[in-house]
Specification:
heterodimer, A: mainly alpha, 2 domains, 7 helices
Amino acid sequence: MRRYVFASVRMAIVTMVLLGVIYPLTVTGLAQAAFPRQAGGSLVTAGGRVVGSALIGQTFTSPRYFHGRPSAAGTGYDPATSGASNLGPTSSALAASVKERAAAAIDENPGLTIGAVPVDMVTASGSGLDPDITVANARAQAARVAQARRMTENEVDSIIDLHAIGRQFGWLGEPRVNVLTLNLELDAR
Amino acid sequence: MAFDITRLVAYGVVLVAVAYPLGLYMARVFAGEPTWLTPVLAPVERLVYRAAGIDPGTEMPWNVYAISVLLFNFACFVILYLLLRTQGLLPWNPTAAPGMGPDLAFNTAVSFVTNTNWQAYAAETGASHLAQMAGLTWQNFISAATGISVAIALIRGLTRREAREVGNFWVDLTRSWLYILVPVCIVLALVFVYQGVPQTLAGRVDVKTVEGAVQSLRVGPIASQEAIKVLGTNGGGFFNANSSHPFENPTPLTDFLQVLAILAIPAGLTFTFGTMASNARQGLVVLSAMMVLFAISVGVMYGFEAAGNPNLTAAGADQVASATQAGGNMEGKEVRFGIEGSALYASVTTAASSGAMDGSISSMTPMSGGMAMLNIALGEVVFGGVGAGLYGMLVFAILAVFIAGLMVGRTPEFLGKKIGPKEMKLAMFAVLALEAGVLVLSAIGVVAPAGLAGRLNMGPHGLSEILYAFCSGVGNNGSAFAGLHAGSLFYTVTVGIGMLIGRYLFIVPVLAIAGSMAAKKQVPPSAGTFPTDTPLFAGLLVGVVVIVGALTFFPVFALGPILEQLLMHAGRLF
């Protein structure tokens, strides 16, 4: 029995060093050498400063900007507490907040009517950090953004189309718009 | 919709195309035959044996194999527990995570040693980089390698004749991670980084957002953990949000690779089984039984999620799919994955005992959440965890042979060996341990005030939360109806016990079956033999899995997911 105990402890330590230290450090070295931008978190700069990560959503409240989805991460888009609402389909809290968000969206966005609010606009994402909205969601906000920026709705729509991300390889995932890059593009114009 | 269905079918085709060569490769690895990686890895393998003081030349009888598994897993548990308790004092802790309390450290250590990867801890703030790498990543490899080893030992037991030994655990373990898991993980991790998964020793990057707020991005050695998280059917993510977090799963490509990696080894092992049993059809029978159950699950989840939640429509949302949105029940889902990606991931992760998830299972429609729970409750045999799925399904195959023998009056035989009362008792013990574990612990959960206090949702969904937690723990899955307050003392302890029951009260009888079958003579098939490599047997196997699961869990499922689905359509809220 003692033999087995010794073997177990020694194997545990050997594997811990190889798989828990050498493996992740090797991958880190290779990743930093090959893909330094992604390995560091895909940071985005604007106006000479880092404004966020292209992959992580952030809070936008001004009517001049497109808004991301509702977020259950902390007080909204807090990367320290990622997560979903986890409210069940028969939760009264979920129904009430969707109703409230839909009413607010209709209030803010000219032309948007009850029953036509894109579902991603009024539901919280899985991570609370979803960087994207659907094209339908972006279109629903175009009139408001155009008004706030004194642009025509057509101009804003064409920027949306320019920034819409198609399915990957034309096949995987869903078409979408990255909110941060879309807003930075608006600011750059 | 037609587009979604072609993608789901394509996934099945790609899965088999990947699993087949991988399965044959694994058969070579465990037979000790040279592979194209041998010139590079054989010196490392010898070094590991020397450093650990192991003699790779001697094989073990089943009981020594089992003792080695248990002692080694216990040693890992103790080391991981101490690491989690003391992480606050140790280096590589850029976000200043404090040491875990005793119950949380117990739960987390058990969780990762048993391949469950239930996350009761707050991943972003509660685990240091050292704990994530040297603790959790390490155990992601080891628990997966342990599962593969036990499956290989069972296959040897079933296929050897009049033998005493079932293999050398140290050799099987080392070959599992060295020849299979690590090479694939290095490639997978680099693809993940290329797609945007961070891999750095830094801990946080504070940025000022466009509107001027401070956002503290969390980064770390994520890709290296992500790769083994999926390949080893572990599922414990770097972040609380798991694979819905854009840093764990940034693009549709990473999502596809993740679901592929989760099922690659469990599906591949069916081909390994066919090869080692010198009967490719026998492996195909197991694979097709798994595939049938899996296809049903994907269909159910996709259908119910695409149909959406009538309560969202009533609140003013548009869930109809169109050219500009995927529609459906988007609460708890990410836009880049939509309905199809999330439904597929949920099926894959609960069919395999992975527990990784690219959205919230709790916010899925009741029947989808119920399907996820059923996948786990069936015993994690619809592909199942790496190794664990195959040895689980082979236990059901032994039950199926016995039941077929009873029905048509034939001798129960599997792979030319008679199944005796001893093997039947062991197989039944393993299955009952799982099911009793889930039901007894859930019963405690729904009567104990501390259990009820942990619910986020009320009504039938609250019952589902509790039931899911114990299915997930005992089934070593690790996914959750995550509204439940899993970090409370009640759940850390009870789910921790459930994980131990589900892992070791299954592994030990499986190895005992391996030992007992290895010792048997092989008898040539006669007219009285019920062939086990036919579509008929695949159908029988599916039937046995479904009937055993349904009889055990239907009553409580009726009160949870099924009742909730009906109430949802009646507009009843809680």
